[in-house]
Specification:
binds protoporphyrin IX containing FE; Fumarate Reductase Cytochrome B subunit; Di-haem_cyt_TM; mainly alpha; Lipoprotein; transmembrane helix; about 75% helix; about 5% strand; lipoprotein; 2 strands; Cyt_b561_bac/Ni-Hgenase
C-alpha cells in the first residue's frame, strides 16, 4: 500500500465541486441572457430556446440571480465552517517567489509546447524548479478565480439591487458593474479551460484529480510535483 498524504479536507472538496457546479449553471444561464445578434456566443437559437424552456427572459434572469445568490451563500457557509482552510488556501496561492515561480512557468510552457530540446538548445536545464503546495500555474489560476470571483459576486449583487432599489443616480455604477461582470467572467473562463485540461485531462496530473474526491495523494506524486510541500510534510508532519 503506497504512503498517502492528506491534501484536501472534506469541506474543501465540497466547496470546489459546489463552485464548479454553480459556475456551469451560471455560465449556461448567463450566456442565455445575452440576446444580441452581434455578440450571441452560440447564435440566437440558444437564448431563444433557453427562454422558451423556462417560460421567458424574466424567469431566466430570476434563475440566474437565484443561482448567483446560492453561489455566494455557499462560500459564506464554507468560510464559517473552515475559515482556517480558506486562510491556508489564500496564503498559499498568493505566496509567489518570483525567480523560482516565473522560471517554473516559463519552462512549463516551453516543455508543453516545444519540448525539452528547445530549452536545451538555449542552454537551459529542462528540469522544473521545485514547487510548493501549488505550482505556479495552479496559483495563477487560483488568484484569477479568487479576484475574478469577488468581482463577479460584487458586480452581480449591484446589478441585482439595481432592479429593485437603486435610482437613476446609480447608472454609472451599474454600467461599470455590467462591464466588469463580463470581463471577469471572460478572464476566469479562459483560465478555466486550461485548468480543466491540466487538472482533469492531463494524465500526469491524474493523482491530483483523484485527490479532489478522496482528499489524498500518493507519496511519489507529492514528491515529484510538489517537492517543497513534500519536504515540509516530511519534516513538520501532515
Ligand atoms: C468542472 C470542472 C473542474 C474540474 C474537473 C476541476 C478539477 C480540479 C482538480 C482536480 C483540482 C485539484 C488540483 C490539486 O490540488 O492537485 C482543482 C483545484 C482547483 N480548482 Fe478546479 N476543477 C473544475 C472547475 C473549477 C472551477 C469552475 C473553478 C473556479 C472558477 C475551479 C477552481 C479551482 C481552484 C482555485 C483550485 C485550487 C488550485 C488549483 O489546483 O488550480 N475549478 N480543480
Amino acid at each position: 500500500m503506497p504512503k498517502l498524504h492528506k491534501r484536501h479536507d472534506k469541506s474543501d472538496i465540497f466547496i470546489h465541486w459546489f463552485n464548479a457546479a454553480c459556475w456551469i449553471l451560471l455560465l449556461l444561464t448567463g450566456v442565455g441572457l445575452i440576446q444580441h445578434p452581434a455578440i450571441d456566443p452560440f447564435g440566437s437559437g440558444y437564448p431563444e430556446g433557453l427562454r422558451s424552456l423556462v417560460g421567458g427572459g424574466a424567469n431566466l434572469l430570476a434563475i440566474h440571480e437565484g443561482l448567483g445568490l446560492i453561489w455566494i451563500a455557499g462560500f459564506v457557509f464554507y468560510l464559517l465552517i473552515n475559515f482556517r482552510g480558506a486562510r491556508f488556501f489564500l496564503a498559499e496561492i498568493f505566496a509567489v517567489s518570483p525567480a523560482r515561480d516565473m522560471g517554473w512557468m516559463l519552462k512549463k510552457m516551453v516543455l508543453m509546447t516545444l519540448g525539452p530540446k528547445a530549452l536545451k538548445a538555449v542552454g537551459m536545464d529542462p528540469e522544473l524548479p521545485d514547487q510548493g503546495y501549488y505550482n505556479m500555474g495552479q496559483k495563477a489560476f487560483a488568484q484569477a478565480s479568487v479576484v475574478g470571483g469577488i468581482v463577479i459576486a460584487v458586480t452581480g449583487v449591484i446589478m441585482y439591487l439595481s432592479d429593485r432599489s437603486f435610482g437613476a443616480e446609480a447608472t454609472v455604477l451599474v454600467s461599470w458593474s455590467i462591464a466588469l461582470h463580463f470581463i471577469a467572467v471572460g478572464l476566469v473562463f479562459a483560465g478555466l479551460l486550461v485548468h480543466v485540461y491540466m487538472a482533469a485531462i492531463s494524465p500526469e496530473e491524474r493523482p491530483g484529480f483523484k485527490s479532489m474526491f478522496t482528499g489524498v495523494v500518493p507519496d511519489d506524486y507529492a514528491k515529484h510535483h510538489h517537492r517543497l510541500w513534500w519536504n515540509k510534510v516530511k519534516t513538520e508532519g501532515e
